[in-house]
Amino acid sequence: MSLKLLFRIILILTSLLLVVAGLPESELITTTEKPIAESRDSLEATDRLLKSVTEKDLDILLPAAKDLLKSASQNLESEKYPEAKLALDSVVFLISKTMNDSLMITYHELQYTYFLKTHQYDSAYKHLKAAHNKSYKRIELENKNKILKEEERLVLIGKKDQQIDTQKQQINQQIHIRLFLILLIISVIIVLGLILFLNYNVRKANLKILKQQTEITELTSDLDKLLVEKNSLLRELHHRVKNNLAVLAGIFDYQYKLTKGEEEKQLLAGINARIDSIALIHQQVYSYEVLSEIPAEPFLNELVVNLFDLHNPSLRIDHKVICDKKITTDDKLCFSLGIILNELLSISIKLTRPAEQALDCIIRFESEEFKLVLKYDDKNKNANFENIDQGEKSISLYLINTITEQFGGEFKWSGTNGFHAWISIPE
């Protein structure tokens, strides 16, 4: 039955080709805009024939459809448009029975080429769109099939993995239980060992602490004795220094009374004033209990007031001490600063000034770039400070410079528009 059906199809297609072959060339071109009347009866017959096709005959019809599509493609390349149209119209029914998407896509692509070459653009667009839709649906269906297969594969893999994970969990639980028991036993042994070890160390440490406490107690007792002895020696030393300074002051005062020359008397008076100043500075410095950290601000404020009272109590004073509260110094530097301030103040006091004018000075003690800087400014513009490096006042400058050099510092002064001094000492 299948061979007979195929034979009848081939006979019908051959008769259609013979009818078309008898047309002139001009009519072949015009047939793109209207159907071929002579082949209509043959197409209807073919349609009736194809409707009777069963699924068992599809394997035989597929090669026939492919041959018709190949013939249509060759006719389009040879610009035999009527033959191509006839082949396409014949194969569409065959493809509809086979339900083959690949052949249907090829059919729409050839129809698109045919209508495009015969300038029927609307029909060409429709077939192009149909080809794209078929291609998209085919690709979408293939993708869905692939996704379904992949999901099935993943489900199977997931089931296997789940079984494997379940087995692993069971094995891990058994291993964890065994490890826990082993670790518990080891931990108990370690804890017991640590308790014994710590107990031994605590006893040993307690014995060591008792021994150290005994030694510390003995050392503290010795240090207390040494401190008492040191304080006693310091008090004795300060007392002797004070007595010696008093003796020197008495000697120079007695010599001052015996001296008749004015120049000698001024020299002795200056020496005596310096001795009194040193005694005052010594008494103030060593009044602090901690000599290694003497606060600079209260020391300088108190020292300046005492020095003014010592030199000239009747002189009206308008002074200001500006000092960083964080600066602390030792007894050696405080003593040297006291001598320097005494010499600076003595220069300002000794110079002639009107009786109604007060001594106006500013003293600054600051920390600048790893240096301690002492600035002294006497704002008295009426006094002559330009020649203070001559005569008795030059001794003051010499003492200030000598003390500054002992600390590795620098000393500068100026007598223009008052008296200004600048001393820097490394910290």
Describe this structure in words.
- It is built from eleven helices and seven strands.
- It is an alpha+beta fold and 427 residues long.
- Among the domains are: 2-119, no CATH class; 259-426, Histidine kinase-like ATPase, C-terminal domain (Heat Shock Protein 90, 2-Layer Sandwich).
- The strands form two sheets. It has a five-stranded mixed sheet with strand order 2-4-5-7-6, with helices on one face.
- Strand 4 (359-367) and strand 5 (371-378) form a beta hairpin.
- Helix 5 packs antiparallel against helix 6 (101-117) and helix 7 crosses helix 8 (262-285).
- It is elongated.
Concise account of the structure shown:
The protein is α+β, with helices and mostly antiparallel strands and 427 residues long. Helices cover 71% and strands 10% of the residues. Among the domains are: 2-119, no CATH class; 259-426, Heat Shock Protein 90 (2-Layer Sandwich).
Supply the CATH architecture of the domain at 259-426: 2-Layer Sandwich
Helix content: over 70%
* Total number of helices: 11
Largest sheet: 5 strands, mixed
The counted number of beta strands is: 7
Global mean pLDDT: 77
**Rough outline:** elongated
Can you identify the CATH superfamily of the domain at 259-426?
A: Histidine kinase-like ATPase, C-terminal domain
First-to-last CA distance: 123 Å
Assembly classification:
single chain
Strand content: 5-15%
Provide the CATH topology of the domain at 259-426.
Heat Shock Protein 90
Q: What ranges have pLDDT less than 50 throughout 5 or more consecutive residues?
A: 1-7, 14-40
CATH class of the domain at 259-426: Alpha Beta
What string gives the helices and strands in order? HHHHHHHHEHEEHEEHEE
Report Rg: 62 Å
Order of strands, main sheet, comes to 2-4-5-7-6
